[in-house]
Amino acid sequence: MYNELPANEQQEVEQALQHDADLAATCADLLLAQRTLDTLRRKPSQSSTEAILQYSRTFLRSA
């Protein structure tokens, strides 16, 4: 998925994918999920950040 295997292990995985349709389908699903997740926002919205900060301020006032 992330091309992190050593070359010999990568070849073994590629061969397994060619000979096992279920494994290939699962790998395809995982690759699609990876691409989808990579496009998601990686930081909270400004309104979420403000809500968290506002909530945390309630603890500072009560101390």
Automatic annotation (TrEMBL):
It comes from the Bacteria. This is Uncharacterized protein. It comes from Hymenobacter yonginensis.
